[in-house]
TrEMBL record, chains A, B:
Transmembrane segments: none annotated. GO terms for molecular function: glycerone kinase activity. This is Glycerone kinase. The lineage of its organism: Bacteria, Bacillati, Bacillota, Bacilli, Lactobacillales. NCBIfam families: dhaK1.
Length: 329, 329
């Protein structure tokens, strides 16, 4: 394992310190936590519902890179691929509540759901108004207990809710909007190489030189199948076909699309894949109103790509294109 | 070699098409070229000096991802690691000249310098006013004929000149400013794994599990030395020491710093390394007025980091923080 690190145990605190130190004053770290909070001048002058997200580290820029005016108020950084603790989440809720309440945006993993729930209960006992939305956009795997995982589509949820919160939506309106957006957000991911978790020291699984893993998660979970590597165009067609099956009246609707690199995938290849997605949808006459391509929700150094389709309703595109001052969007 | 591509010969045109198709209308491709030009509504209404850059592909988001209001007017995308042809560069000059002339921003490689020079001569014969600045920020290697290479610092030059051009600087003023900025921009890069050029099919060089290459270029050029892998902090200290030697009165000045991932380096590790850089400079009492961290000037899928120091003069920080509408900044 070769990585630019110091001690393995210090990876998350040093990463958070690095993010804050190089944020040009936009972010600060809550004392004695690895929670990152807005520090821009607008933050103190606005009164809006606070938005808190978080989860295991290793997905950068998600979530801390999306803290800023027009997106998240704070992000809580857990250990690598491990949920943050309830007390850290509680500290973030407490720090961002400006009297309008706080919405938690949680990816659907049992550890995250449990710890954010405990933090919500602690905060409610302390007279904070708190609501939660749980993102479950991954269509690859459905766990019988937990349901679908929350993956790259989370960033679109954060962007839409961040813009709506700044525009003055109430806690209840934001929770409602979040649930509507999540219902229309579907993601599928593939990998050519698994990630190497620093504490493990080797890739999470091995693939042959002509294989790809179809339907991976963002924590080195294997997918539905190990398959033969195909061209970018064939892959785009297959992923689109499976995603389309999740929507009714697919070709009649408007979409936002996220092509997401998972850490070690060159941007060049992401654009080639996105080009194939765009060509196929154009041939089908499907309207894409918003595109985003890049490394937004990574899995350390996984070589992989995820494709997210968000079926838009009136006004959502404006939230997606609204100005934002974050490091990662 | 496992990559998300179709045919190797189609990589660059498909990448450019993907970039344009997913730019939400911000970019267009000049017909029968792989040159990308601004397509935003402001572009036709402004009158400013045109800024054209370009070079071999494989460094995305550089250069096409930096085309937009407040940065480049156009970028010419050559084949992978290969200069674009003079006729493509000429087409870009011709398309962006609004009567105020065009500045070419060229990385110091013999192929690029030669082809941009030929394009300039073609354009001048056609009554365009054209000037050139050549970026040579890499301190690792000095070729006896060509001098220092142009690497990641190029993006800071493009950002400063882009903001100044929008603010109404003349061609002569921009060339002068560019030369001043370039003189104060110094970069050093290291790699843990070389890039795999698609047409080659394997990494450009091999390193052992405990080795890093110190002083690499952005085209898989080996560096000054192959060395033992050290911690991020030791590496930051060593790179800073060598970069500092390039400046007079180092600790008395103000700096902008770019920590740049070279394609397959997780953002997590870039922030850890940046944290070490920030800590060391703080201990030295050096003022850093602007930070940028991320994959800006990559080398396909190289696992590596470059560190750029730009010694600031009055006003330059404002150009660096000025608003910009590009895909990559």
């Amino acid at each position: 394992m070769k990585k630019f690190i110091n001690q393995i145990e210090q990876i998350v605190p040093e990463m958070v310190q690095g993010l804050v130190q190089t944020s040009n004053g936009q972010l600060r770290c809550l004392e004695q936590t690895t929670a990152v909070i807005r520090n821009d001048p607008q933050f103190q002058n606005q009164t809006q519902v606070g938005l808190v997200s978080g989860g295991g580290s290793g997905h950068e820029p998600l979530h801390a890179g999306f803290v800023g005016d027009g997106m998240l108020s704070a992000a809580v950084c857990g250990e690598i691929f491990t949920s943050p603790t309830p007390d850290q989440i509680y500290a973030a809720i407490n720090a961002v509540d400006q009297g309008q309440g706080v919405l938690l945006i949680v990816k659907n993993y049992s550890g995250d759901v449990m710890n954010f729930d405990m933090a919500r209960e602690m905060a409610e006992a302390d007279n904070h108004q708190v609501a939660t939305v749980v993102v479950d956009d991954d269509i690859a795997i459905q766990d019988s207990e937990q349901g679908h995982r929350g993956v790259a589509g989370t960033v679109l949820v954060e962007k839409i809710l961040g813009a709506a919160a700044r525009a003055g939506y109430t806690l209840e309106q934001l929770q409602d909007l979040g649930q509507q957006v999540i219902k229309q957000t579907k993601t599928l991911a593939v990998a050519l190489h698994a990630a190497t978790v620093p504490g493990v020291g080797h890739p999470g699984f091995e693939l042959a030189d002509d294989e790809l893993e179809f339907g991976v998660g963002i924590h080195n979970e294997r997918g539905r199948n190990t398959e033969k590597l195909v061209t970018a165009h064939e892959l785009a067609a297959k992923m689109l076909e499976q995603l389309q099956g999740e929507f009714t009246d697919f070709t009649q609707q408007h979409y936002a699309i996220l092509v997401n690199g998972m850490g070690a995938t060159p941007l060049m290849e992401q654009y080639i894949f996105a080009n194939d997605v765009a060509d196929i949808l154009q041939q089908q006459g499907v309207a894409v109103d918003f595109w985003k391509v890049g490394n937004l929700v990574t899995s350390i150094d996984m070589t992989g790509i995820s494709l997210t389709l968000l079926q838009l309703q009136a006004g959502w595109r404006d939230w997606l294109t609204a100005d934002v001052t974050t490091l990662g969007w």
